[in-house]
Amino acid sequence: MATNLKNLSDHSEKNIINVANNKFAIIVSEWNDEVTESLFNGAYETLIENGVKKENIIKHYVPGSYELSLGAQWLAQKSDIDAVICLGCVIQGETKHFDFICDAVAQGITNVSLKYNKPVIFGVLTPNNQQQALDRAGGKHGNKGDEAAITAIKMLGLVQQL
Ligand SMILES: Nc1c(NC[C@H](O)[C@H](O)[C@H](O)CO)[nH]c(=O)[nH]c1=O
Ligand SMILES: CC(=O)[C@@H](O)COP(=O)(O)O
């Protein structure tokens, strides 16, 4: 389903668990920071609204979305971190650079989650232009940061059932 048919801030209550004792790391790309800070605000507020303690949320930055994978790895390897949320915004330019970054960061984040066996969430926007990004970072299509935070909580809920 395309995002324009679903609000990114809407979610079901499935697998929403008590996360009062869980610790979350949020790694944020500095590129397109007007967008990525909105994504962070959405993710942070969503975690708090769902019972995460402020002291259990840590925030760090990387220069660009390409570096999210390594930043996520450095956080995921910490035994006290239960989930990592990666936030970025890669906007299509004139060249194929967009494709290389998007492919690399999507695969890289997946690899980290599998390597450390914990949720590492892909909260990276890959829009064609700035307006599409703003629409998905607290605009008419909701906030992908909200989605990323809920996804982290739901994955912790799933693994508790197994
Ligand atoms: N153009 C965008 C970038 N480019 C920078 C890369 O992510 C990376 O930091 C650089 O290639 C050095 O390794 N990053 C974004 O997050 N968004 C962009 O639109
Ligand atoms: C995604 C990018 O790296 C992009 O913004 C770079 O722009 P360009 O492809 O025009 O060099």
UniProtKB/TrEMBL annotation:
Pathway: Cofactor biosynthesis; riboflavin biosynthesis; riboflavin from 2-hydroxy-3-oxobutyl phosphate and 5-amino-6-(D-ribitylamino)uracil: step 1/2
Superkingdom per UniProt: Bacteria
GO terms under cellular component: cytosol; riboflavin synthase complex
One GO term of the biological process aspect: riboflavin biosynthetic process
Signal peptide: none
GO molecular function, one term: 6,7-dimethyl-8-ribityllumazine synthase activity
Residues annotated as binding 5-amino-6-(D-ribitylamino)uracil: 31, 65-67, 89-91, 122
Pfam families for the chain: DMRL_synthase
InterPro entries (alphabetical): LS (IPR034964), LS/RS (IPR002180), LS/RS_sf (IPR036467)
Transmembrane segments: none
Catalytic activity: (2S)-2-hydroxy-3-oxobutyl phosphate + 5-amino-6-(D-ribitylamino)uracil = 6,7-dimethyl-8-(1-D-ribityl)lumazine + phosphate + 2 H2O + H(+)
Active site: 97 (proton donor)
NCBIfam families the UniProt entry points to: lumazine-synth
PANTHER family: 6,7-DIMETHYL-8-RIBITYLLUMAZINE SYNTHASE, 6,7-DIMETHYL-8-RIBITYLLUMAZINE SYNTHASE DMRL SYNTHASE LUMAZINE SYNTHASE
Function: Catalyzes the formation of 6,7-dimethyl-8-ribityllumazine by condensation of 5-amino-6-(D-ribitylamino)uracil with 3,4-dihydroxy-2-butanone 4-phosphate. This is the penultimate step in the biosynthesis of riboflavin.
The protein's name: 6,7-dimethyl-8-ribityllumazine synthase
Taxonomic source organism: Marivirga atlantica
